[in-house]
Design brief:
The structure is a homodimer of 310-residue chains.
Chain A: H1 9-20, E1 24-28, H2 37-40, H3 47-65, E2 71-74, H4 76-80, H5 84-99, E3 103-110, H6 114-124, E4 137-140, H7 150-159, E5 162-168, H8 175-178, E6 181-182, E7 185-186, H9 187-200, E8 211-215, H10 220-229, E9 235-237, H11 247-250, E10 261-265, H12 267-270, H13 284-300
Parallel strand pairs in A: 1-2, 1-10, 2-3, 3-4, 4-5, 5-8, 8-9, 9-10
Antiparallel strand pairs in A: 6-7
């Protein structure tokens, strides 16, 4: 029943989704001004003090969601904003989530060439002591070319971790490069084809590989199209909730068993205390819990609802 | 004569190139096993100890090159590999280089959407206290789309810093995405066009803007083609030296005054002590100095030689 039995990332993640009966992943995107006032009282905006608030805030969210969801996805940018002290807070948050038996997918969108890509891969991929950051998964960027994905994929396979390659992102301007039409099809489609090849080559018992794809919830048609073109690839689907993606929009990302995608929600959950429907609750943690359960319910109205009867 | 007079990144960088009479930038890519043995004696491979070695090594390189070159380019990946302690070493190296009156371009290839891109921009762009890392420039990745470059460009313009957008990278597999032919031309060409528009809109007295482009020395034809297509854009040219790019290969990156490009060399300089032509020297720092001067001489055989008579 635990998700630690397998050394294969895809199998481990799909097992965690089955155990928690939901594909929902909670994004840890701390933004100082949106954090509950209680945690900010008397805190200056100096980097070390804000880093401490980020740490506490994320720890409390992990406490709330650890029994509910398979994974969390910390967003590196918000921690990096605070300099090296922010990075220490990020390291602590990753450790805390791992201790809480959550899988950790770091959203850092790294990418570089040759031995530099190898350094990024070694930095993040694989639980401690396999890497110094100790993550289960990492988002990576394909612009530099197919050869630059290799060091990440190799390291992921060696360490039982996984990567999610950006294929079709959730932002309004993602079309400007990703949807450019080439002689072999759209750019994102070509990246998707390559990712599927890598994923198929690392396929586990679950039928899914360790090389995933980021495909935004805000593009439901592309999501469904890519689902059928990429049968071995787990999708990390951002844009659900605050960015406008609905449960109906992510429906196309699931296979017939309700597997194959994990769906991230960040702001809609972690800042739920500020949403009209949750302001009446006794404390902000209850708002986070309620928002998590509500998101799980909405996702259960899709094919992902099949997980509930697994 | 100093490069601090202007608040405009392009002007500041071109002034620094003119003052130092060279477009050479030294890349700080510490790799533990290649660092001079003297610095590694008695050091374990634990992250805190290695981070300390990286810090010392980079400090010494900065001491050697600070009077010679306009800028250094730390590579984030090698520091990230060591976890949060590595990030503290990176922060110290950036501070030390700024104190040494060098411009600092962080090679971190960041990229994300909306407010997350804004967080990365706020993290790195602008000297302290404008940002917590305090860099003059940052490399960024265009895959997520044109809208995702905006937060970086806006922040760069606000803080007198700059960005270098990946256009055509130096790795052998860069063709696999960047050279895909679309109905409007090759992918890298389209990215280049957009970068040129952004750069032209931020043009300073030097004729160059604050939005640069990364164009690899290993693709001399594309470099020359992009130079004429992107007259307002400063190029950051990696791949010179250890990656095989020669002075002749980078020639096409310069304008008629020997400006318009900065050329990075990392391994060829910082690990010069291990190269046959420098092993006879009294110490590794002398090898770094000699390799820097030799690289400057090689670049002076190109149009960049015009800087010497400025």
């Amino acid at each position: 029943m635990t998700n630690e039995l397998s050394d294969h990332f895809g199998d481990r993640l799909m097992a965690a989704v089955r155990v928690k009966k939901t594909p929902l992943v909670v994004g840890l995107d701390p933004r100082f001004k949106q954090i509950p006032e209680k945690l900010r009282l008397g805190v200056s905006d100096s980097a070390p003090e804000v880093a401490e608030v980020f740490r506490k805030f994320c720890f409390e969210i992990i406490d709330v969601v650890q029994g509910l969801v398979p994974a969390v996805k910390p967003q590196a940018a918000f921690f990096e904003q605070l300099g090296a002290r922010g990075m220490q807070a990020l390291a602590d948050v990753i450790d805390y989530a791992v201790e809480a038996k959550l899988m950790v997918i770091l959203d850092a969108k790294r990418g570089d060439i040759g031995s530099t890509a190898e350094a990024y891969a070694r930095a993040f991929l694989g639980r401690k002591p396999k890497s110094n950051w100790g993550c289960d998964g990492l988002t990576i960027n394909p612009y530099l070319g197919e050869d630059t994905l290799e060091p990440f994929v190799n390291r992921a396979n060696e360490t039982g971790s996984g990567v999610f390659v950006l294929v079709k992102t959730s932002n309004p301007g993602s079309h400007s490069l990703q949807e450019k039409e080439t002689h072999q099809g759209k750019v994102y489609g070509l990246v998707g084809q390559h990712v599927e090849r890598l994923s198929a080559a690392s396929k586990g018992e679950s039928g899914y590989g360790s090389v995933g794809a980021v495909v935004g919830a805000t593009y439901p048609e592309q999501l469904a199209e890519l689902r059928s073109a990429m049968p071995s690839t787990i999708f990390l689907v951002p844009g659900f909730g605050a960015q406008g993606g609905t449960a109906k929009d992510v429906e196309g990302g699931f296979d017939e068993n309700g597997l194959g995608s994990i769906v991230n929600s960040s702001r809609g959950i972690i800042f739920a205390h500020a949403k009209p429907e949750y302001t009446e609750l006794d404390c902000w943690q209850t708002a986070v819990e309620k928002a998590t359960l509500d998101s799980m319910d909405r996702l259960a109205e899709t094919t992902a609802g099949k997980l509930r009867s697994c």
